[in-house]
Write a structure and sequence with these properties.
Blueprint lengths: L5 H25 L4 H32 L6 H10 L5 H5 L15 H7 L5 H14 L2 E2 L5 E2 L4 H8 L6 H13 L6 H17 L1 H18 L3 H7 L1 E8 L2 E7 L2 H15 L8 H11 L74 H15 L18 E3 L1 H6 L5 E3 L4 E2 L1 H9 L26 H11 L15 E4 L14 E4 L1 H8 L4 E3 L7 E3 L19 H6 L1
Antiparallel strand pairs: 1-2, 3-4, 5-6, 6-7, 8-9, 10-11
Length: 548
Amino acid sequence: MEELTSNQAALGAMAQAITTLDAACAQFSSEELPAGQAAYFAWLAERTAQTLSRLQIHAADAVQRSGSHQLDTESLDAIADAGAAPTDEQLAALHGTRTLGRSSFKDAADLHSGWLGIAHGAALARLAAAGSLIAKVTEAGERTTPDCPQLATHFANRNVDPRPAIGAARAIRNAEADLPGPQARAQLEAQAVRLIAQEPASAAKHLSGLIAEQLQSQRPPEALFAEAGLFPRGTKGGLVIYQLKVFPHDAELIESLRAKIDNPNTIAGNREQLNELVHASYPQHAEPTPSAEPTPSVEPETPVAPMPPTPREWDDAPSMPGWARTPDAEATEAEPPKPPSNLAAPPERPFEDLSPALRHLTGLLAVLRANRVGGKNPGAGLITPQVIVHLNYEKMLDGAASFASTENGLPLTAASARTLMCNAGIYPVVLDGKSQALDIGRSKRLFPPHMKRALAARDRGCIYPGCRMPASRCEADHVDPWEEGGQTRVDRGVLLCPMHHHARHAGLFSLVVAEGKPPAVLLPKFLDPDQQPRRNTYWFSAAEVLAA
């Protein structure tokens, strides 16, 4: 028998890998695993998913360039017969023959969807990703350079997760028609590569912001004013729907309101007060629902265990850090799950467990009712949105296009920043300075408000990489423990959310300060094999991340 070629041997190895993975899955699903083995199992599964993501794009490229959709029926039958356990003879016979007549599939996307069972849209996305990250294939079957050569280099690195590069290529490709030209496209691609390398978890968010800035810079103010507004969208499912389009400096008012309501430590976020607002606004929901069935009695001697308290640290998706998220928490507020119309409505949730979206709506309506003539709602007017803008003074003097962003990470144009500065009080915060007002040594242990304001301007939120807790819900912590002589100084202080504050003091990570740089997080080696000091970039604008 003839010896298998390298391609045939590689295909056989892939088939064997499928068999091996299936056997491993069967083993792990039927046996209890020790904690260490279970964690390694999860690590290997995720590493396999990364490899499969890269394989899918390479497979789409191979199908496209080889014209596999033109294979005749006999060749496709031979592939199906080989399956996941091919013999050497079957592997040697898999060259295939392309038909000269009508084929079973009209193109590569049709082969993916019609034979492999992949949704047509997903098939087109894989082929487009192959053209962006591997090579474009012309109608004549000739291969040319990929559309995103810089991202292609990153994608080809087998030591990194390919999925951020795939997502970045898709985002740039979708925006390509609206970009001013090839130069802007190449600049976006270079920025995407840098963002992925610095902080993969936030790269997609920052790239989306960069694309939005590119598109917004091309539009005259008249076009923006023509689209801004509050638009009624009719009634659906018993609710009235509105669409709101606002400028970034106006959006910060809403983001500030949301942040205050999400913080249970503020008056605005007080859950009992919000419950009272809901009861006052919808008194019919406060009445007990009559039940046709008798309530079972409880014997006096039967102890009833109290309900455990509901944890309040991260009770909503927007403020939840990435590492604490579950699939259920990934659901967006804008698109709540829709129950089937043929089923009865689910039982109402208790008022002390309001959904984030309903909390935000309640707070917004309270602000509107506070201005109502003769309004007597006792809970109205408790929420006062506060807009905080971070300015890069040197960039502003140089006339840079992007020198300001809001506390919630919304980039501002020069015009929007000037508008806010005309209608707001200004708190000057000098970073990297030697002002004694910011350095109070050991006279006080707790950070006073003016120092917390300086930390918020520098850190924007919890500095633990990937955490989405804003500065308003964070605590100031000493880099050098107070009990060991640490001083209350801005350059030796950081913002940490309550969870990561406790984690730091429990020894789960450490803080380091490099010369001339703000404090950073040093993660344990299993999370960061490179052991590089890292800072959270989620609350920063893309321009600030790239300039860091």
